[in-house]
Automatic annotation (TrEMBL):
UniProt xrefs under SUPFAM superfamilies: S-adenosyl-L-methionine-dependent methyltransferases (SSF53335)
Source species: Pseudogulbenkiania ferrooxidans EGD-HP2
Sequence ranges assigned to domain Methyltransferase type in this UniProt record: 43-130
Taxonomic lineage from the root: Bacteria, Pseudomonadati, Pseudomonadota, Betaproteobacteria, Neisseriales
Domain of life per record: Bacteria
InterPro entries with a match to the protein in the record: Diverse_substrate_MTase, Methyltransf_11, SAM-dependent_MTases_sf
PANTHER family per the UniProt record, alphabetical: METHYLTRANSF_11 DOMAIN-CONTAINING PROTEIN, METHYLTRANSFERASE TYPE 11 DOMAIN-CONTAINING PROTEIN
Name this protein carries in UniProt: Methyltransferase type 11 domain-containing protein
Family (UniProt): Belongs to the methyltransferase superfamily.
Xref: Pfam families: Methyltransf_11
Keywords, sorted A to Z: Methyltransferase, Transferase
Length: 256
C-alpha cells in the first residue's frame, strides 16, 4: 500500500467505521457457494471490519488484517474474527490455509507484484479470491447533479491507483483464472446526515479537506442538502460494485 494511503485511512477512523456501507448479502451468498469449505477466511485490508464481521457468521475463523492501527482500533469485535496489524504483501499465515480471501475497497492500494505471490501461497487449492469496491453513487437525478459539484472539487485528490478499481480491475495482473461474476449493487436507505457522512469520508474528500481546509466542501454539501429535501427523509442510495473473483488452480467453470 502506498504511503499516502496509510495516512489517509488513519484520518477519522471512527467516522469511517460509522459511514461505510455494508456489502450486499447476495455477494456473500454467491461467494460462499463457490468456496471449497468454511473453515477459515482472510479479510485483507479489513479497515473497520465490515466484511470480516459478516464472514464471521459463516466461517469458523476469520483473520482480518490491516496496516492501519487506527482503523483496527475502530473495528467491530466478533467472536470468530481475529484482528491483526499486518501488511497485505507479507503475512505470518501458513501455506494453503484459507478457503476464501477477500479484499473489499482496497486492492488498488496494494503493491500487487508482491501481493499476488502471497495470496497464492496462503490460499488453499480450489480456494476463492475475491476483490470488490465502488466509486460513484446514484440517488436521484437532482441529487446526482448536486453531487457532481462535490465530485469535481475532490477529483484531483483521487489517487491514480483508483483507476484500477474504476476499470473493473482490468490490468490487475491477477495470476489465477477469473470467474464470471454477476452484477452486484449496494443499496442502502440513508438519511441526509448519513449520506453526507459517507461523502466526507472518501479518501479524496479527506485529502481535499486536509489540503484546502475543512470548509472547502461546505457549498457543495449545501447544494446536496437542498436537493435532498427534509433532513430526516430517508432515500435509497445505490453504489454499483466492481467485482473480481478467481479460483486457485482454475478448478471451476465460469459462473454467471
Amino acid at each position: 500500500m502506498e504511503l499516502g494511503s496509510v495516512a489517509t485511512f488513519n484520518l477519522y477512523p471512527d467516522l469511517y467505521a460509522r459511514f461505510r456501507p455494508s456489502y450486499p448479502e447476495e455477494l456473500y451468498d454467491w461467494l460462499l457457494q463457490l468456496c471449497p469449505g468454511r473453515g477459515r477466511a482472510w479479510d485483507c485490508a479489513t479497515g473497520s471490519g465490515q466484511t470480516a464481521v459478516r464472514l464471521g457468521e459463516s466461517f469458523a475463523r476469520v483473520d482480518a488484517t490491516d496496516i492501519s492501527s487506527s482503523q483496527l482500533s475502530a473495528a467491530e469485535p466478533h467472536n470468530q474474527v481475529y484482528y491483526r496489524e499486518c501488511p497485505a504483501e507479507v503475512t505470518p499465515f501458513d501455506d494453503d490455509c484459507f478457503d476464501l480471501i477477500c479484499v473489499s475497497q482496497a486492492l488498488h492500494w496494494f503493491h500487487l507484484p508482491s501481493f499476488w505471490p502471497e495470496m497464492q501461497r496462503v490460499l488453499k487449492p480450489g480456494g476463492i479470491f475475491a476483490a470488490w469496491g465502488y466509486h460513484h453513487c446514484v440517488v436521484s437525478p437532482e441529487i446526482d447533479r448536486a453531487c457532481s459539484v462535490l465530485w469535481s472539487i475532490i477529483e484531483p485528490f483521487w489517487s491514480s491507483r483508483c483507476q484500477l478499481l474504476w476499470d473493473d480491475f482490468r490490468g490487475s495482473g491477477c495470476p489465477l483464472p477469473l470467474l464470471k461474476a454477476p452484477s452486484f449493487t449496494i443499496s442502502s436507505d440513508w438519511t441526509l446526515d448519513h449520506f453526507l457522512g459517507f461523502l466526507n469520508t472518501t479518501s479524496a474528500s479527506k485529502l481535499c479537506k486536509q489540503a484546502l481546509g475543512e470548509s472547502i466542501l461546505d457549498d457543495s454539501c449545501q447544494r446536496i442538502t437542498r436537493a435532498w429535501g427534509p433532513r430526516s427523509q430517508v432515500r435509497r442510495v445505490d453504489l454499483p460494485l466492481h467485482v473480481m473473483v478467481a479460483r486457485k488452480d482454475g478448478a471451476a467453470a465460469l459462473i454467471g
